């Protein structure tokens, strides 16, 4: 009887498993394999613009197809300074915007955790609300503020400061990135500070710690998990960011997401675009693995 | 608890940074003049212009049906995936499966878009609203699965077991016991999928065809040329809808929590 009961549950689990599993195999894993495959192919002036194309229906041709694969596109990425400059510049921009987001986000999260209890849900909602509204629109808002005849220069004009040329520079990109990703920094830090037991700080102060000392020796170490999670949540997506550099950045703003899209749509060089994607993935594997490890540790703690 | 001056200042400046740009955007949607620097008086003319623009209305319709259908598919598949993962079913390829659930969450959009486009081209699928739905359902189901999983983890399993002991079939136990309990998470997952789909520009640009332009694609192609008051009006409408939705949702959950 009991065995029969669990047999039914297991059968249901097996039936329930298949639709999402097959869906992900076809629409996540298979496309991925395709990117790798095309990254190893050559460009052709046909449609689709790459060769050799894989003919799945003819197993006899597989060997020849695989023999035609080479690492030419990756060699190309190494030879052309544009690509590695773009990777390095993406990593640099992602690093500094993460630091900036931390410098702005930490005091906000800290103040939220210190706010009266009845305010906290409202403050939380105020942080989450921008996340639900369109990313594109929030970046667009900055075009109107930062452009040469924009809101900021108008305000500066009132107080007699000469106009600033911010739009289409890296400064504008930093502003846009920090603005868009700030909630991702605030929320995990707030979550870890909210759990912090205030009696620990009282104990430290009773034992003769100064306020600042107690902050650096107790609050910061105990919110380390939140800081790490926030940094990864900002850093990882910013490396591949496309919208912010293409709307706020200028021609000298190099970010790899933008390079990939231009390579694909403007130059129609699919193999190189795929190789760019493969390398980007390898660049991100390390931070992603570190993030998952720290998330798992955070769960078990 | 009294807040220190430093905390009050950092919250004020922080929220000013988060909300001033949106506020300025909305205010200028009522500007009679086309220029940001010139305040031409209060006017709703850009809203009128927007509603007469057929391309925007068409894009709004595409965006809406894509978001609705993809969020619904994602909710069903994501809930199934969460159930299988949390209820610890053993099967070959479990690691692969959970990897495929978490990977899209951190995958750069440009890679997801590129890889799906390459798939659709290689199997000869006509690109349009249908391919956007497939793409959006794929990444949304991962978000749904994470949201539903967290609810399933905290859920008292003995309730399900009791139903089974009392003679319910597994499907009945799921429908009558599990589903009502995880329903808020399922609803939240659907809303998340819907919003993610409404918001997506990069993946939709890759996988869309000539017939299907979504609202973000339309907005992007206009704003590349600079500020347009028509886009301000559209933004104000979208932001208003989101704000209303979030406020209503939080009020109803609060009331339910108090009841």
Name the average pLDDT of chain A: 84
Output the CATH class name of the domain at 54-226 in chain B.
Mainly Alpha
User: What is the number of E strands of chain B?
Assistant: 0
User: Architecture of chain A, CATH level 2?
Assistant: Orthogonal Bundle
Q: The CATH topology of chain A, please?
A: MetI-like fold
- Count the DSSP helices of chain B: 11
Written account of the structure:
The complex is a heterodimer of chains A (301) and B (259). Chain A is mainly α. Chain A has helices at residues 2-39, 62-67, 72-79, 81-114, 120-132, 135-146, 151-158, 170-195, 198-206, 211-222, 224-239, 243-248, 256-265, 270-300. The mean pLDDT of chain A is 84. Chain A has one domain: MetI-like fold, CATH 1.10.3720.10. Chain B has 259 residues and is an all-alpha fold. Chain B has a domain at 54-226: Orthogonal Bundle (MetI-like fold), CATH 1.10.3720. Chain B contains eleven helices and no strands. Chain B has helices at 5-28, 45-52, 54-86, 94-106, 109-122, 129-153, 157-165, 170-199, 202-207, 215-223, 229-258. The two termini of chain B are 28 Å apart. The relative contact order of chain B is 0.14. Chains A and B meet through helix 1, helix 4, helix 5, helix 6 and helix 7 of A and helix 1, helix 3, helix 4, helix 5 and helix 6 of B.
């Amino acid at each position: 009887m009991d065995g029969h009961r669990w047999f039914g549950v297991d059968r249901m689990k097996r039936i329930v498993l298949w639709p999402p599993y097959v869906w992900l195999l076809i629409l996540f894993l298979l496309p991925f394999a395709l990117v790798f495959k095309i990254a190893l192919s050559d460009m052709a002036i046909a449609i689709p613009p790459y060769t050799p194309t894989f003919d799945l229906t003819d197993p006899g041709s597989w060997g020849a197809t695989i023999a035609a694969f080479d690492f030419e596109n990756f060699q190309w990425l190494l030879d052309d300074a544009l690509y590695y400059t773009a990777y390095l510049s993406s990593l640099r921009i992602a690093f500094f915007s993460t630091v900036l987001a931390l410098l702005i986000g930490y005091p906000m999260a800290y103040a939220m955790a210190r706010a009266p209890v009845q305010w906290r849900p409202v403050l939380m909602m105020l942080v989450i609300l921008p996340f639900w509204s369109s990313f594109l629109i929030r970046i667009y808002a900055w075009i109107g503020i930062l452009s040469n005849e924009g809101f900021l220069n108008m305000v500066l004009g009132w107080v007699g400061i000469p106009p600033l040329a911010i739009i289409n520079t890296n400064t504008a990109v930093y502003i846009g990135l920090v603005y868009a990703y700030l909630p991702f920094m605030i929320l995990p830090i707030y979550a870890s500070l909210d759990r912090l037991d205030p009696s620990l700080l009282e104990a430290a102060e009773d034992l003769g710690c100064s306020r600042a000392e107690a902050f650096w020796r107790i609050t910061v170490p105990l919110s380390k998990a939140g800081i790490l999670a926030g940094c990864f949540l900002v850093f990882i997506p910013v490396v591949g960011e496309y919208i912010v550099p293409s709307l706020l950045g200028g021609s000298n703003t190099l970010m790899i997401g933008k390079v990939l899209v231009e390579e694909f749509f403007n130059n129609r060089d699919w193999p190189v675009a795929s190789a760019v994607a493969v390398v980007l993935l390898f660049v991100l594997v390390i931070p992603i693995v570190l993030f998952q490890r720290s998330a798992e540790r955070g769960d078990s703690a | 608890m009294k807040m220190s001056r430093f905390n009050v200042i950092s919250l004020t400046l922080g929220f000013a940074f988060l909300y001033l740009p949106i506020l300025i955007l909305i205010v200028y949607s009522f500007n009679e003049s086309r220029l940001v620097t010139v305040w031409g008086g209060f006017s709703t003319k850009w809203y009128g212009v927007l509603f007469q623009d057929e391309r925007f209305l068409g894009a709004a319709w595409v965006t809406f049906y894509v978001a609705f259908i993809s969020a619904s598919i994602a909710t069903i598949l994501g809930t199934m995936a969460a159930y299988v993962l949390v209820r610890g079913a053993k099967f070959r390829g479990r690691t692969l499966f959970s990897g495929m659930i978490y990977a899209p969450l951190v995958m750069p959009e440009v890679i997801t878009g590129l890889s799906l486009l390459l798939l659709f081209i290689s199997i000869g699928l006509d690109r349009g609203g249908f391919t956007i739905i497939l793409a959006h359902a794929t990444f949304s189901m991962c978000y749904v699965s994470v949201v539903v999983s967290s609810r399933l983890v905290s859920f008292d399993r003995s309730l399900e077991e009791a139903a089974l002991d009392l003679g319910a079939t597994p499907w009945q136990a799921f429908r009558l016991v599990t589903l009502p309990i995880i329903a808020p998470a399922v609803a939240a997952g659907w809303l998340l999928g819907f919003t993610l789909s409404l918001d997506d520009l990069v993946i939709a640009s890759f996988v869309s065809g000539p017939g299907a332009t979504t609202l973000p694609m339309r907005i992007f192609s206009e704003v590349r040329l600079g500020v347009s008051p028509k886009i301000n009006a559209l933004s104000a409408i979208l932001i208003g809808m989101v704000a209303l939705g979030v406020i209503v949702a939080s009020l109803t959950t609060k009331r339910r929590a108090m009841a």
